[in-house]
Amino acid sequence: MAVEFAQLGVRVNAVAPGEIQTAMLSPEYDMLIPRIPLNRLGSTEDVAKAVHYLCSDASGYVTGTEIFVTGGQHLY
Fold first, then answer.
1. pTM of the model as a whole
2. Domain ranges in the chain?
3. What percent of the chain has pLDDT over 90?
4. What is each CA distance from 10 to 3, 21, 62, 63, in whole angstroms?
């Protein structure tokens, strides 16, 4: 999609959140923290900041990319 829409000036990106602290997350997820390099669960604010960046002029030359908001967990 990024290639197809680039000529129209539309950027296409994805945000891939990892374990995010929400009401849906059960206490068992705390056992995952040692496997997250930043040693904490993500917050909804962490995800929102990534989305905000992609919507801002600061990412004007970013397209066809996936931003992992995982605290580094996706590296394992």
1. 0.89
2. 13-75
3. 88
4. 9, 31, 10, 9
